[in-house]
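Could you help me review a protein record that somebody else here produced? What it holds is a sequence and that sequence's fold in token form. I have pasted the whole thing underneath without changing anything:
=====
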Amino acid sequence: MTSRSTGSTKDIDTDTSRKGSLAALKGLLPFLRPYRRQFALAGVALLFAAAATLAIPAAFKRMIDLGFGAAAGAGSSVTSIENVDATFLALFGVASVLALATAARFYMVSWLGERVTADIRAAVYRHVVRQSPEFFETTRTGEVLSRLTTDTTLIQSVVGTSISLALRNTLLFSGGLVMLFVTNPKLSAIILGMLVLVVLPIVLYGRRVRKLSRDSQDRIADASAMAGEILNAMPTVQAFTHEAIEAGRFQVSVDSAFATAIRRIRARATLTMLAIVLVFGSIVFVLWLGAHAVLAGTATGGELGQFILYAAIVAGSVGALSEVMGEAQRAAGATERLLELLAARSDIQDPADPKALPPRTANGARVTLDDVSFSYPSRPQSAALSHLKLDIRAGETVALVGPSGAGKTTLFQLLLRFYDPQAGAVRLDGVDIRDLPLHTLRDAIGIVPQDTIIFSANAMENIRYGRPDASDEQVIAVAKMAAAHEFIERLPDGYGAFLGERGVRLSGGQRQRIAIARALLKNPPLLLLDEATSALDAESERLVQRALEAAMLGRTTIIIAHRLATVQRADRIVVLDDGRVVESGTHASLVAHGGVYANLAALQFQPAAPVEQLG
């Protein structure tokens, strides 16, 4: 099977960088469609608000021509006062409609922004947690977190604000333009022609703003990725006294993000200035022509006032649209980055025609590796396993030993189907694991990893992670089996004690006993132990070893161990070297054979040579 670089964002970036400036925003449509009703309500409120705004200049024209104009021609008549009163009453009514419609529009679009952003975050996270380890070989965790937070916040501003403003100003621009032609066709034709000339440089410069927006988001993601990596390795950083060095590295990364952001801000400021100067310059020129028309008697003062207000609405809407365009371009870059995550496809998928495991027997599960060959995607030229053949009977306890890099951990990863072999097959109870649903396969396997993961939760919930529906009594029972009950009881809040991020409040041995209890709670037919007792002291190891021996009853167990004292009682010891089985047998038979295992046993069990006394 050919491996695909699904996690490589570099390849995806090359493709998406060729998209149009706002084309990426189309990717938001699947998240917007479920809320068509809310969009329709916001649209109705938007239409009322735009209509109310466009009605204001007409009311001012009526007030000037029928009120002030009539008063100037015939003295202070009652009719002029009535016209003014009626006009201001109408203006108040229009303002009331505008206020209600604007409030309704603000509520609906803000709701949409929050809802759609939450949906996007959930969808991206749900997609990422289903990716295979290959994805995380090429994608940094900090970068994913940046996309989930910073990028979705930008999209929230677009969905919750910018789209509404864009539609509002588009309506005002269109309606204002129509009313300009109704008021004075000649002046409107001139202003429209000039607007066409000024929009072209604005659009061209906007492309530069989009590129800088994307670069700015990339630099922020780089800084977040660096910070996440260093914070997770803080004990190592402090042990090597690299605090100042890492702070300096982060400062350089932050300064790079700042410099890119300043270039983006400068470009947006220039774009805004260019839009305002060109648009308002054109309008001022046309208004100068209109003023001369009033003086020449070819237009009334009310018409000019109405024309000025509509021109202001059109100009303001163009200026607002240019600003919204800048926000939309930033969101387009953010959307591209999120769509890259959603487009990543793992090679490890549920089968199209899944099979079921046979009913569980009292002895556990049978495991077969049939001529398996595998190379990691990041190291395709180096074989981690080569034509490996291994048959483990149900209920058998098999220990895997061998030098580092022999393929022991790789075998575990193939059993869990974190990767698929390039050749051969891995079978569980006679079923190729590629034909099993991933949940079915992994539910049948319990693992105690060498690097124990403790979540930011209490002791009870950390153990219950093995089986979320387990009762408190069941959790406590397996904690006792794993020799974890006593130290948990001594914690300030017992099983309710918060264990700290990554279990920083526990010792290495305590963390490992939590992991053993978690695996025992799952009660799987196949148990994988990766150096399960490596971090325990002699007394704890004795207790846990006894618990593990009890837990091995009725299940198949595969143990990885570098400390050979922990595997002497295994039913069979399999020695791996360079991804192949080189020896297999019991401890006694392998020592008598005098091969690789015998050499390893001699190194570990041979007593140290006596030290010569001085003098």
User: Anything to note?
Assistant: The first helix runs from residue 9 to 16. The chain has a mean pLDDT of 78.
